[in-house]
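Researcher: Here's the sequence for the chain we discussed earlier.
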Amino acid sequence: MRRRSNQLFKMRWRQTGSMGIQLAAAIFCMLPLYTSSTGDIRHHGISRARGWRAGVQPSADVTANNTVSNITAQLGGTAYLHCLVGHLSERGQVSWIRKRDWHILSSGKFTYTNDERFQVLHGEGSEDWTLQIKFVQKRDNGTYECQVSTRTGIVSHYVRLQIVVPEAFILGSGEHHVDMGSVIHLICIVEKSPTPPQYVFWYHNDRMINYDATRGGITVETEPGARTQSRLTVRGATLKDSGNYTCSASNTEPASIHVFVSEGSNKMAAILRRNTSAIHGITTSGTCLLLLTSILLHFGLR
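Model: Thanks. This is the structure I predict for it:
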């Protein structure tokens, strides 16, 4: 009787140990699924960010207190913050204040900052008191107050300034494979740009190639617009044309892609290596599914 009990105990112990190993393997297999799901969420967030539209730059009439307007300006460009003041008395005064540090930037036509990028524009007889900011930087982002002193008190209008940085991206994946003697064709898109760039520059390994007369066979075509497109064409690709290609415009985040120029057999070998990796991933996933199925069947039959 005691021997039979020992045998049952050992059998249950082996089953418990086996199930523990299977559970650990199943958890290990599920970890990449969780990581992949999290990565997709981040990717969608980036895609939504690319749907930005440039705003307008409105003027505001300071007849009501605490009014707010919003404007956008491109990094490195000029921002114009308008404030319309009607029937300003002789003793009245218009001041511009930066809210983030409560710095009085101007009073009347006089500026009170060492930053020469700031200037007040006001013509004789005009109702517009415009704060001009040249070569805007990211730190200029924020709220500015146009404060008007009147006989009855202070009237304020607030302008929210948003600095946008245009972004560039090259169509396709991070790698581009071509055969020797063929044509390298790359397309760069520049977006989030209130003012479309007139020129897009292409670099090969940090060397500008837009006007490379030595190499020859290189053309660049740019179409400015809401989504500026620039097309780079390199004819008669050689091994020397391999490397990193970057497109960039003024005050724009650049984009890069790596180009591999090789003979047909080398290109096929690279493709076969990628396919082998994909098959290995599928085999691993199949093993994980078998482990999960065995665990479910075990608990279902108990």
